[in-house]
Structures are given as C-alpha cells and as structure tokens.
Amino acid sequence: MILEQGQLVIVRRRPALIREVKTFIDYPTNISEHLVNVEYIDGWVFPSQDTVIWEREIGTRVLSKITLPEIGSPDIQPDDPDSFDAFLDALRNSWVLSTPLGL
Known about the structure:
The chain is an alpha+beta fold. It has one domain. It is built from 1 helix and 5 strands. The protein has a 5-stranded antiparallel beta sheet, with no helix packed on it. The relative contact order is 0.18.
C-alpha cells in the first residue's frame, strides 16, 4: 500500500488526513516502514495531530486513495451559479421544514 499526503485514513479509531509521510528502514528487521504525520478531523481538540509508525499501529486503514484536489487546478471548475443557487434554496428549505415550530 502506498501512503500519500492528503489521504483520508483511520488511526487510533479516529478519522485523519495524512499531512506527511517519511519512509525509513528498520535496521534490525531490514523492513521498510512509514513515519506518518496525521491531522485528526473529528473535531476533538486533543490531540489534534499525531506522528505514528504506520505498520506498528493497530487497526489503521486507508479510507480514500484519492488525494485532496488542487484548488488551482484547471480541471476543477466552480458550480454553475444557477445550480449552486438551487442547492442553497434546497438547503434553506430543508432547514426551515425541519425546525420545530416553537423556535
């Protein structure tokens, strides 16, 4: 498995984004391992990030093999304004309909 910056992963039962990956050799076993810096995205404040040895962690998994998109990429275009406006209208209407009458 290839770990890459920007991948969505589960580490220590928490969703996280990979911020940095460094490969190193464990000399006693001569096996390649990965030192991975992750930033948790579940809203818990402490710890907000960790550095782990990927192969030594229990229960790690990659949720997304797709990296985050580059914002400046010419392949990424913003939504059509009419479509985006329709989306916002639907969002507002669903919020209004789900709000209790006493508020």
